[in-house]
Amino acid sequence: MTELVLRRLLPQPGTVTAIEALEGLALAKMAAEQRPYLVLNMVATADGAAAVDHRTAPISNPADRQVFHELRTHVDAVMVGAGTVCTERYGRLVRDPQRRARRVARGLAPDPLAIVVSGRLTLTADLPLLADPHSRVIVVTASAAELAGCAADVSYLRPAPGEEINLPEMLIRLRTEHNVRSVLCEGGPQLNASLLPAGLVDELFLSIAPALAGSAGSLSIVDRAPLAEPIGLDLVWLLEAQGQLFARYALRR
After folding, report:
1. Which of 34, 71, 164, 224 is the most exposed place for a label (fewest CB within 10 A)?
2. 209-224 tens-digit pLDDT
3. Who's near 162: CB < 8 A, 6+ residues apart?
4. Considering the entire predicted model, what is its pTM?
């Protein structure tokens, strides 16, 4: 696989590959004792649409995909909502052997844990992720049901009977019961809109496509998150490739 070169615009101008840009993240070291360190990775058009016709492919490019997949080599777990898993047809999270080798070199398992948030368990066993025998999946759900016929190693994280999912509690349990120190959340917007008001997001990696979606676009990257006031962002670095911008932000507390 050819590593593409991106222009580094900030903080120091230069050129980097996705591997070089993300080297040294050490997200697990920043985890609090009570919950994992959590970063969002999202793509959006210049006018704020998180998808076109409900898919992200029309607003992605090869460099975006390399950053997307390289981020997965730095975390214990990848979190995603059930709608995104189904729409984007998620499969094995790290398919490339070289990326799995980089994970192992960082002291991580070859494949990250997949955390799928599905309040009513609206998943089917034939989804590529659940049909993959290499995948370890924790389904966060309020449903008492279980999925039959999954080739993946599937377990469940549930609230008390009759209660709704409490994401702060679920993240505490992921940290204490499963030793998850770092989480990469890939959305979708509705999941993001639940994480942000609860103060569960530490960083945002945002890919901004050089495109306007207009009425073809759907939602923003945070849906209509019920925020009491805007959350400030501090720009850590900014990259560019083929007009696509790649920003890393730290959320202000």
Report:
1. 164
2. 999 999 999 899 999 9
3. none
4. 0.97
